[in-house]
Amino acid sequence: MCGIVGYIGKKQAAPILFRGLRRLEYRGYDSAGVAVMSLEHDSTRAHEHESTREREHVIKRVRAVGKIDELGKSLDKVELFGTVGIAHTRWATHGGVTEENTHPHIAMDGKLALVHNGIIENYRELRERLPAEVVLTSETDSEVLAHLIATYYEGDLRIAVEKALACVRGTYGIVVMHQDHPNLLVVARMGSPLVVGMGEGEYYIASDATPMLAYTKKCIFLDDGEVAEITPDSLDTYNLKDESVIKCVEEIDWDEAQAQKAGYENFMLKEIHDQPLVFQDAIRGRYNLSEGTSYLGGLNMTAEEMRRINRIVFIACGTASYATMIGKYAMERLAGIPVEVDVASEFRYRDPIIDENTLVFAVSQSGETADTLAALREAKRKGAFVRGIVNSVGSTIARETEGGSYIHAGPELAVASTKAYTNMVAIMLLYALQFGRLKRITLATGERLLNALDEIPEKMKQILSLSDQIKEIALKYKDYHDFLFLGRGINFPVALEGSHKLKEISYIHSEAYPAGEMKHGVNALLSPTCPVFAIMTKNQLYDKMCSNIEEVKARKSPVIALANIGDERVKELADDVIYIPKTMELLEPLLNTLPLQLFAYHTAVALGRDVDRPRNLAKSVTVE
Ligand code: F6R
Predict the structure, then answer these.
(1) Any ligand 1 atom below 6 A from CB of 366
(2) How far is the C-alpha of 140 from the C-alpha of 29, rounded, in Å?
């Protein structure tokens, strides 16, 4: 939530900052702003000839309410020259969506500028410490921090930042600049991510690595409690005790091309279509067909430790939590290990039963979700093995777990998660197979699963080619106000995900239920105005699912069915059928979710929604 960008080097900063903000727009899009260190003629000596007048550095700032495009329009109207700058895209927490509340915030009559991602919990108390003459111009906690740094400033910007941060309770990723130090940025992190990309005589700073992919793949990831002083030619890192810290340079294996729309209308459609390819990236080199097993080396556990595990807990939020429900099915069926799935925001506030024989997986696309992070810290405290299943390379969850796997989905920039969900499921299936082969399943079962896994990308492509048919169905149903998604067994989490996608990007109310539960209350909703999306591919619960849908039909709800090619019976039950290829039951979610993503997508587009940036949401939920 909120994205920050900084640049210091020899190039013009404003275009780099603006482009960076576009990459980070998924983190928030209520308002955005840029500040650049600009060299200006001294205005107090306007009477002198231009050639003799002294030039001084001043911070110039442009801000705009609305999406990044609005900032672009404002930037077109001003000249913002300078090779050092900071920028921010906001997801409002403290204070409304106004230009005054938009970052960068300034202090010392415009001499100091700051961008901040996070929440300063004690900002009211800190406000009391500011000199009486300070006049706050916004309602934000961040502006208080800017003034606090200014209050401590005695000529050394880093020291002032450190002194101010020592008073702060809360989370922050900040970048600060000061007119007296035109070639310096000071950055600091506590709980909100900050990455520094390293170029030749230049540095890029951002909340994640995507804004810098076009310029460099070499990054350092700041850890909590670290402050760095950055000039075009140097990067010095310190901890909050002012001791020097040596950082490792890491290489990012994402491509700039992956972070582009590649001819698609928006990122969500591109990311849906990325799935056959990135699914292969997720599983490549991670299994051995002749041994019928998978090898996810990052697990960092001996076979003995793996055998000792008698309980697995998956913690995640939102779409990632639906992916973990599929992981539970797979792990219990293949490995026979009891699995608990917990929404991270609940897990952290109960007293979970966890011990040294429990393996906890924190599952997250961004790797920054505050609740998932807090839950994994709680699990660590209780002595469990804690591993990550994460997309964002170098993210906090990846760094704070003692191993795990990257899902290799590449940058996912649409707010609604699609390809990351699929790759999370893929990785959990591979883990289930790895534990399963160690504990109980045969070589033949392992081989069968891997062979079926190999066929998934082609089948995904077949499904994606149905996009136009799914669009027609979406156009037919777009004006309904309520939807039900029904599934059973492994398709219940698929129904949950389909329903989640529809509501988050189309704003249509929708719920998902296990079809067998309908009689216990939800049947009351059935009527001609409440369509049902039934996931009824042919697995062990197919006949039961047919009976449930008979009951739906009898109550006159329109039915859209997702079925396997060749299923004639379903035609009698459904008003519209989407036929897809068959796969092994355990792998069905890898295919069945795709038509639901397309259905949500086409419905949202038909309703004129901004599918990449749905209202009130941000992709990376770094606050509780
Ligand atoms: C839904 C969506 C959210 C995220 C959730 C967890 O499409 O994107 O529900 O799945 O906020 O985010 P991560 O996976 O980054 O922890």
Answers:
(1) yes
(2) 16
